[in-house]
Amino acid sequence: MALPPSDADARRANAPVICYPNEGLPKPDLDLYRRARMNAQKTDEVLVPARDAKCFEVTAGHFFRITSVEGPQVGDLNLWNREDLSERFYSGKTRALHGTHLTTGERMWSSFPHMRPMATIIDDTLGWYGIDEYGGSVHDVIGTRCDPYTGNLLSGSQYHHCCHSNLTRALADHMGISLAEAEPAVHDVLNVFMCTGFTRDTGQYFMKASPVRPGDYLEFFAEIDLLGNLSACPGGDCSSEHSSDVAACYPLLVEVFAPDEDALAGWESPARNGYDRSHGR
């Protein structure tokens, strides 16, 4: 442990600076989206079984809702461009732009070189939660996904119904490809309904019992054609452990809604990022 220098307190006192001030981000037209949502008709639904995952598709300009049913349950969400799996959700940049947890009016951004909004959150029944006394909040983009590799590293286990494996199986089944082909496309997630943060003393990622209850939902507007994949985490409400056959787990419901044909008059799906990709050459 290095000894603190004489000016340690002064160095610690330096004020923080926001890395990516987001006032310049394109603002979603939530009023337009919500008007379009009012008369939208349900076109599809997928019930994601406990400790498993299912894929779903959403057309640009349509809506999808993830709802807790039967009992408190968190979910791990992957998103891709439906026509191009190389464009996928970029949790790290989403975190840099919006913060550690997402809520209404914030967006899920796609990977380089595309970097554009994939989906916008238009309604969040847990928006009241805020940040609690432990620094915890819901819908995080700081965790990755429970996976068999970390489980094997820490405990020597061979657990196959963690979210990474669930998402891999579901994508392989949906696309008609092998597990080996599907696995590299699975990526860091939006932890829907999960309540998480970092400990103040050690800076470790923590989880606590989710405040979600049956009937709570998170609803999105699809900015581009989407392929979604949702895992109902084997940790249930993540109050004690994940990657477990012991925790109480419940299904999650995904519903897709189509607005009236003229409800989004003037709206256009966002173009890919305008950087010229010359990289200084």
Q: What key phrases describe this protein's structure?
A:
globular, 6 helices, six-stranded antiparallel β-sheet, 13 strands, 281 residues, single chain, 28% strand, seven-stranded antiparallel β-sheet, alpha+beta
**SS class:** alpha+beta
First-to-last CA distance: 44 Å
Low-confidence stretches: none
Shape type:
globular
Give the tally of β-strands: 13
Largest sheet: 7 strands, antiparallel
Radius of gyration: 20 Å
Oligomer: single chain
Number of discrete helical segments: 6
What proportion of the residues is helical, as a percent range?
10-25%
Average predicted confidence as pLDDT = 96
What is the topological layout?
Blueprint: H1 8-12, H2 30-38, E1 41-48, E2 53-58, E3 63-68, E4 75-81, E5 84-88, H3 91-98, E6 107-109, E7 117-124, E8 137-140, H4 148-155, H5 163-175, H6 179-182, E9 190-198, E10 205-208, E11 217-222, E12 226-232, E13 252-258
Antiparallel strand pairs: 1-13, 2-12, 3-11, 3-13, 4-5, 4-9, 4-12, 6-7, 7-11, 8-9, 9-10
Can you offer a commentary on this structure?
The protein is of the alpha+beta class and 281 residues long. The chain has one domain (45-258). The protein is 17% helix and 28% strand. It is built from 6 helices and 13 strands. It has helices at residues 8-12, 30-38, 91-98, 148-155, 163-175, 179-182, and strands at 41-48, 53-58, 63-68, 75-81, 84-88, 107-109, 117-124, 137-140, 190-198, 205-208, 217-222, 226-232, 252-258. The strands form 2 sheets. Strands 2, 4, 5, 8, 9, 10 and 12 form a 7-stranded antiparallel β-sheet that branches. A hairpin with a 2-residue loop joins strand 4 and strand 5 (84-88). It is globular. The termini are far apart. The mean pLDDT is 96.
